[in-house]
Specification:
3 helices; about 0% strand; mainly alpha; elongated; about 140 residues
């Protein structure tokens, strides 16, 4: 079996399990990006240029939650842009467009048509890579 301490799929509903797995993979991918962004900015790597029209630099924005709260936080308009961009990704990019996904979280049919060579892997390699992504996503969700 699998670990299900809350009994969310104790009834054996495969569609429910696939939906939960899809959400877990998606959140894991987002957490991996968030964790990477956190590490990179804490290492002192920032975008060049100004974050707003007043000339404040990206490097002047603090790390972590302080980037959202406090006197040096990202301007509200910038946060709105981030939220709108995430919404655009949710609606148009991070989804199974045609319903032809090979597994939950398979977004190879996205508008850019990138598959990263997935079709060249054996079934065993595909299973291993999916397990690695799932575990790394779980670790990132705990880390962020």
């Amino acid at each position: 079996g699998f670990f299900d301490p809350l009994g969310l799929v104790a009834d054996g509903n495969e569609n429910k399990f696939n939906r939960l797995r899809y959400v877990e993979i998606k959140h894991g991918r987002i957490a991996q990006l968030a964790f990477l962004g956190n590490i990179i900015t804490r290492a002192g790597v920032h975008l060049n240029g100004a974050i707003d029209l007043s000339g404040r630099q990206f490097s002047d924005v603090p790390n972590g939650f302080d980037a959202f709260y406090g006197p040096d936080a990202i301007p509200r308009e910038g946060l709105l842009q981030i939220v709108l961009f995430i919404g655009w990704l949710e609606l148009f990019v991070m989804r199974d467009v045609a319903g032809t996904g090979e597994f939950p979280g398979d977004f190879r049919n996205m508008p850019l048509g990138i598959d990263f060579g997935w079709d060249t892997f054996s079934e065993e390699q595909k299973f291993q890579k999916r397990a690695i992504e799932l575990n790394q996503g779980r670790a990132a969700m705990m880390g962020i």
